[in-house]
Design brief:
By secondary structure, the chain is α/β, with parallel strands linked by helices. The protein contains 19 helices and 30 strands. Its cofactor is Mn(2+).
Length: about 600
Amino acid sequence: MSLFKRPALADCVPELVATARGARPASLVIRGGTLVNVVSGEMIPGMSVAVQGSRIAYVGKDVSHTIGPETIIIEAEGRYIAPGLLDGHCHIESTQLTVTEFAKAVLPLGVTGGFFDAHEISNVLGLKGLRLMLEEARTTPMAAYMQVASCVPSTNAELETTGAAFGPEEVAEALSWGPDMIGLGEVMNFPGVVYGEETMIGEIQATLRAGKVADGHFTWASDDWRLPVYAASGITGDHECVTPEDVAERIRLGMYAKMRQGSAWHDVAETIKACTEMGLDTRRMMLVTDDRSSESLLKEGHMNFVVRHAIGQGVKPVTAFQMATINTAERFGVARDIGSVTPGSIADIILLDGRLADVRVSATIAAGRLVAENGKMIAAWDGFTYPEEALNTVHIDRTIHAADFALQAPVHAGETEARVIKVTENHVETKEVKMIVPVEAGKVVTGPGKDLCKIAVFERHKGTGNSSVALVTGIGFTEPAAIAMTVAHDSHNLLVIGNDDEMMARAANQVISMKGGSVVISASGEAVMPLPIAGLMSPAPFAEVAEQSEGISTALQRAGCMLNNAFMTLSLLSLAVIPEIRLSDKGLVAIGADGIHMVPLFTAELKEKV
């Protein structure tokens, strides 16, 4: 049972009212700070807050009538009092941390809750994986709301192999687990929604019938006639905004526009112009992270970093705080509980030093308890143990050899034209490019200096033996190098990228032997990050995982891959619903205006050398 209880407001009314009128002492009082009132958009000096248990009983200039002998008092003079920050769209698995370690990492940064789409572990372990994440989240101090994954798989079994499959029945079951199962996770199969695919429509219907909300993921252009079609399904939030127009069009259709600043997706600087330049009403604008690595959490931060960044783009500080608190809570229908420092709300409160624009969090209160101070956790709780089933998910019962990466060309020697995946730095999308590639002895040749690598996917869930090999450019390796990893959105099969077949095989086999994770092998050395929980997360402490994550990044950079947060960018190259082209265990998948379909690697035969 969690030490950090969050009872329903109805169950707390007698105690809250008694405390507010002075008949019962408060358990905690925060006294004499400047309140960041995100409801009114004001900064109000000389304010105090009285807390009873997990909820706020009184907010005002004078709370002396609520103080008793046992009341804990926190002096806030010279500091700001603000609601705890909320992340409106986040995948905890992308940090490679467990929920427990994630909480320990972000609570000192002022993040007291979030809306978490666990579709990574769901694609590996199905409902069992989602339930494990939910149960672990309930042990932490965070207001952790889970979404049931909408895309398991992200497309369908003809295009990729996953460890599980969700439909309307699974969605309905998961949403019955409690009020902290908040809605349907990002619906990435937007073509399926627009063109009436039965399963996707059924999942949305199951969500709406449960009284929950559905999140979106629409990557066609904002002026595409199909965005209103997508909105007509009942999807009311979307984080795939990369321009101010993307934000504007979603808001105009009644959706919430989520502006993302992840480790590898840097969209806030552009999207925030919908506020700073277009002057649109900000009540349906949200700040989110989507994906942040443990390395980024350590070096930059989490929502504190995103709010500070938005302020740096010209957003008023109180407006930026609204985008990470009350707007987010209202989007998910839980503003009565979280998102503001108001009577009756759960006492998720942060204290900030210095200028508000600097977002310097000095203390974090979660569910009425001081849990972090001066950047350090001071609260503790029991750990969570994952079952053996979650620790043994890489089912590849063979040794991978260099020959498995051979690409048989349509010509014996010379050149041929091929479809190549082109990486786009700091963006989720890729480009499909046609390249003339060299052929020797009937096989495509890659190597340092060619800006051409092989990319391979090996199915690891069901022992099908499926594998595919294609080509990718934009990696930047300048020496023989390879990376293998089981973090490969969203099917999370074994993904291998490199320009040396022997190194690719070695890296792949090492990942298999350690039951998941990432390995980089190059002429400059090796780096290892074990991720035994579903092949996605580590049971190790936050600092240790962040160090391993940095080791992977450093190894890639030494090999010549200078992409910002390369690991995260590369992990998306198998995500079969993001334009324009990806690789699954079944082959190359193209995503265009006409939908999603398989395409051949080679496009034409050119003249052979004689």
